[in-house]
Amino acid sequence: MADNDQIVLEDAKETAFALDKAYRRAIYKGDLDTAMELKPKVDRAYDQYSQARLNLLQEGVLATDADILEMRRIRGEIDQAATTQALIDGAVRFAAFIARFV
Amino acid sequence: MSQHTIKTSFANLTGIVLSVSLLLGGCASKAKLLQTGAAQFETESKAAIEKIDELRRKEIEVTPLSSKEASEQFVKLVTGSSKPITLETVKILLDPFKAHAPESEAEWQAFLQKMRRQYMMFATTFASLDTGSLFAADDVKDAVPILDKLIAQMAAFSQGIKENPATFIRERAVIAMELEEVRDSDSPDEVKKLELLELERRLREIAAAEEDMTRRTVEQTVKAAKLGMELRQLLMNYDELSVDDIAEGLTTAFRLVGGIPGLDLSGLQAETNEILQEINKDETLKQLFNLALSEVPSLSERTEGR
């Protein structure tokens, strides 16, 4: 699929470049009628280029929603460890306080 | 229980209290250092994501006309037209080079947001590590497989941008059109030559800006991947490392990352190669990285060849 996206990216780049050049020439020469015909084609070519660029980047994405859930789980465990540790810390401080009177 | 036994018990307890307090203090310091490393990884990764966003926008960005040029163009276009002026025509007359947002804009936004969220979530996983450090060593290791994916993603983005560097298509199209106009004009050769030299200067400026944009984007993704690799070492050996070990590891990581800015594309390629070598040393990372690039033949062949 990425092969296709790579080809689409190259093709869209060339097409957008050629159409944009023709569109700019039409504008430069004051040829509004030709410019009107070309504008939607130019926009479509840039749309395709942008989509292909995005598709190629998305091919590199590995982390999934399941990984987000896993990160939440790990955070929950660490938070729980913090709660446990706070309780122990409290107990230790209490013991230290009592020890001062013995 | 005798008075002596009670006193001995409390003396032992005081010793335990001190030991636990010291242990907690040491663990908390280690944890705080790790939090710093994870937060920095988030910062560098999110900066890389912003660079990718900047690059894709700049590629299809248009330099607006000055108001004087726009007015001249307006008159020329209206007088040169023959068909009825429609609402669509008025839009073009007002701003002929205004680019519309790509159809994939919403998808782009979702992708960028998803990426930012992933790296932010990773850093916040350790938010309360400093207060739970005594019991959370195993949880720290659990985060390694996710970090592996986040590193491989950054390395894949880096390779992807290098394979498809920034091309300011619209800017190039303007120059190309002007080049053809000058070439085909009836102007004297001397005038043509001057005009072409000016266009060459502008074209070289665009090429330099494209290279700079590509370099800065690759640089940021390499920085993030490199920091991720160093952080991985710390996570994997978290329970065996001392505060000093972690501090030293992070200092090295920040120094390495700090040394990257300013490298040209070949320098960045060397940095990337180092990351790829590290990735290839570790079977899990290697598999993930190859998976990320599996369908880009030129890239996967290159990494497998190492």
Radius of gyration of chain A, taken over Cα atoms and rounded to an integer in Å: 31 Å
**Approximate helicity band of chain B:** over 70%
Percent of residues of chain A in beta strands?
under 5%
Q: Kindly state the mean pLDDT of chain B as a whole number?
A: 83
The ordered string of helix (H) and strand (E) elements of chain B is: HHHHHHHHHHHHH
**Gap between N and C termini of chain B:** 72 Å
Give the termini distance of chain A in whole angstroms.
75 Å
Main sheet overview of chain A: none
Rg from alpha-carbon coordinates of chain B: 29 Å
The number of E-state strands of chain A comes to 0
Could you name the ranges of chain A where pLDDT drops below 50 across 5 or more consecutive residues? none
| Number of structurally distinct domains of chain A | 2
Counted by DSSP, the helix tally of chain B is: 13
Low-confidence stretches of chain B are: 295-306
Which percent bin holds the helix content of chain A?
over 70%
Principal-axes geometry of chain B comes out as elongated
User: What's the main sheet of chain B like?
Assistant: none
| Count, helices of chain A | 3
Oligomer: heterodimer
- DSSP strand content of chain B: under 5%
Using DSSP, what is the number of strands of chain B? Answer: 0
Structure, briefly:
Chain A is mainly α and 102 residues long. Helix content of chain A is 88%, strand content 0%. Chain A has helices at 2-28, 32-59, 65-99.
